[in-house]
């Protein structure tokens, strides 16, 4: 079942910029420049892109906060801005910088307010809260006023608040930003569990590469307001020619140049050489060559790092065939 359907979505902002000492000129910023996207029920989608790519703007349009300049979009069958109230009952939103919690009251009271706002039957509310308490370890700070919570504790509270009415789709904008390692793990573990159950669709923007590796089965990358990749992480690696590294330890320094298709020398430190292999190169061919030179002592293969592939992707201009 399709829960998000987006066709030709655009958002332009008119900004005033100072020209010279006194004059101000209007300039149009195209934040989202024609996005098509279909998301099915239960998908866990990573929505990525460099700073200013248009991620938050897209999320704001999907959640009914911003009116699109043009294009069509439905979320859970609703058009977000005109049907914002109906949509609010079906979605959950966690925007890292904004809080849905009541600052001066204990966390528990915010959850009680949510129950009334969304008219959740008491039994359903209690069951949802019990699950969040267990999975997010809330009990130690349920009675603490929100303003006294640490960032990680608050984020766990925000996630709970967004989920208590059992939304079909949850939108998360940078949910792990600024959290310590343990809180990050708690949040990721919770989202992974939510994803595994398969009935909640999750759309997540993040700059944290560990979030992507741990959670996102599908990755949509945008740049300059356009989709430049839509697929799995392994497709991303294959498409952007991410390179494995083979580090070899030799008995004596190499005197012959090793020339193989798709293999290049990345660094040489005495008898230790790091080779970079593109997606089509075979490790076996490199090993066979080094053995034939009679010099190989030890070898380690490092799989492509996600940092490598994402930085290559962000550096390749949108619409142009990526580097291989
Ligand atoms: N209210 C606004 N008025 C004017 N320009 C805006 C407004 N909101 C966003 N923009 C511009 O639209 C573009 C996309 O911004 P957006 O916040 O969607 O990017 P992002 O991908 O979420 O970036 P980041 O990773 O830094 O959060 C940027 O050039 C930004 O300056």
TrEMBL record:
It is a peripheral membrane protein. Pfam families: ABC_tran. It is found in: Cell membrane. PROSITE patterns: ABC_TRANSPORTER_2 (PS50893). One of its GO terms (cellular component) is plasma membrane. One of its GO terms (biological process) is response to antibiotic. The keyword Nucleotide-binding applies. One of its GO terms (molecular function) is ATP binding. Its main location: membrane. Keywords: Antibiotic resistance, ATP-binding, Nucleotide-binding, Transport. Residues 9-249 form the ABC transporter domain. The keyword Transmembrane helix does not apply. PANTHER family: ABC TRANSPORTER ATP-BINDING PROTEIN (PTHR42711), ABC-TRANSPORT PROTEIN, ATP-BINDING COMPONENT (PTHR42711:SF1). This is ABC-2 type transport system ATP-binding protein.
């Amino acid at each position: 079942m399709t829960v998000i359907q987006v066709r030709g979505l655009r958002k332009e902002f008119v900004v005033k910029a100072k020209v010279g000492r006194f004059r101000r000129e209007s300039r149009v910023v195209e934040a989202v420049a024609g996005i098509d996207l279909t998301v099915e029920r239960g998908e866990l989608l990573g929505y990525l892109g460099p700073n200013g790519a248009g991620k938050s703007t897209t999320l704001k349009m999907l959640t009914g906060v911003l009116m699109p300049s043009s294009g069509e979009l439905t979320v859970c069958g609703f058009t977000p801005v005109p049907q914002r109230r109906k949509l609010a009952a079906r979605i959950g939103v966690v925007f890292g910088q904004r809080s849905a919690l009541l600052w001066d009251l204990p966390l528990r009271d915010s959850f009680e307010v949510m129950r009334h706002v969304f008219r959740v039957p008491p039994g359903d509310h209690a069951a949802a809260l019990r699950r969040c308490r267990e999975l997010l370890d809330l009990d130690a700070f349920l009675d603490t006023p929100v303003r006294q919570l640490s960032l990680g504790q608050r984020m766990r509270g925000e996630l709970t608040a967004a989920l208590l009415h059992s939304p079909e789709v949850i939108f998360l904008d940078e949910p792990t930003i600024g959290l310590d390692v343990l809180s990050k793990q708690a949040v990721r573990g919770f989202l992974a569990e939510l994803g595994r159950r398969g009935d909640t669709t999750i759309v997540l923007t993040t700059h944290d590469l560990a979030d992507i590796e741990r959670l996102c089965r599908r990755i949509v990358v945008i740049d300059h307001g356009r989709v430049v990749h839509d697929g799995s992480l392994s497709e991303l690696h294959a498409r952007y020619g991410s390179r494995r590294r083979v580090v070899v330890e030799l008995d004596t320094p190499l005197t012959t140049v090793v020339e193989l298709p798709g293999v290049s020398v990345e660094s040489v430190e005495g008898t230790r050489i790091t080779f970079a292999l593109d997606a089509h190169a075979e490790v076996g061919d490199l090993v066979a060559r080094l053995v034939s030179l009679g010099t190989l002592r030890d070898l380690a293969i490092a799989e492509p790092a996600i940092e490598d592939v994402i930085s290559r992707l962000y550096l390749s201009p949108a619409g142009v065939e990526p580097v291989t």
